[in-house]
Design a protein that fits this description.
Strand content: 5-15%
Radius of gyration: 20 Å
Shape: globular
Strand order of the largest sheet: 2-1-3-4-5
Length: about 350
Amino acid sequence: MNTLPHVQKLDDIREILEVLPEFSHEAKQQADAREPQLTKPAGSLGRLEEVSHWVASWQGSYPPRVKSVHCNVYAGNHGVVARGVSAYPPEVTQQMVQNFINGGAAVNQLCETFDVDLQVHEMALDQPTNDFSKGPAMSDEDAAEAFFYGMTTVKDHTDLLCIGEMGIGNTTAAAAVAHGLYDGAAETWVGRGTGVNDEAMGHKIAVVAESVLVNKAEMKDGLDVLRCLGGRELAAMAGAVIAARLKRIPVLLDGYVCTAAVATLEATCKGALDHCMVAHNSVEPGHQLLCERIGKKALFDLDMRLGEASGAVLAVGLVRSAVACHNNMATFGDAGVATKED
């Protein structure tokens, strides 16, 4: 699908969510039919088998392919940083964007290692969102604009998309979004982010709890939560995920901030994230619980908490391995190997 529906307000997104395409039953059936023929005991490749079938099903074609892989990183600044919720000043967001451009970040090395095309998108860094501890972070129009921008960044003919973010203060936004979506105690969702100390951690928890209460009356569904408690980069990631669905591109999600951003879609329309897999479990304590709430099991856990799509890009190697085994292994018939039935 080359032409995206235009988005001017959040209700436009709600309409798109109601008509999302489903996976290809035909491609899934073809993957299911080949798997038992491969020269291995049934189920012996574990989740690698699930991954290869997932790629084929959501690409809508068979065999699955993972040649053209793209990584989109979205950068945004948050007004709530003025409340002292981060160990770093907001200027670091722009400085890290320049580091991405210069090739000096971790995600640059991972993209080079796994032959992934990296695109970094700045989301009005000189205009932080409103301080959401005092009211909504964005207006309906601003949130829709950021969402639509994310949609436009997804390239046609992409086999697999990785998404991630950069933004000082965005673990506070992620925690607030998760708390706004699923309630519970605020401390359940708040982690140390860039490494705040114990005193600052207590303050961060208080700000998250306060922010959800302040915005509660305006939050009717997940998209409202994203508008009130998120940020431009969170909205852009959600937009990219929906564009990928429309273009039949499977998506690898990164850590806590990324997962919180797109959880707003699942909260608004169940099944909106069926074409996505969570790459890794973040050290941020709310991430595992958030994955459970959206029905996802991360592919690996390496105690990472960097963001910038680093975990998602690392998982590309796993996805490529899964697809290579599915596509290229010999069948019992080809190899002249007796089956259990034989």
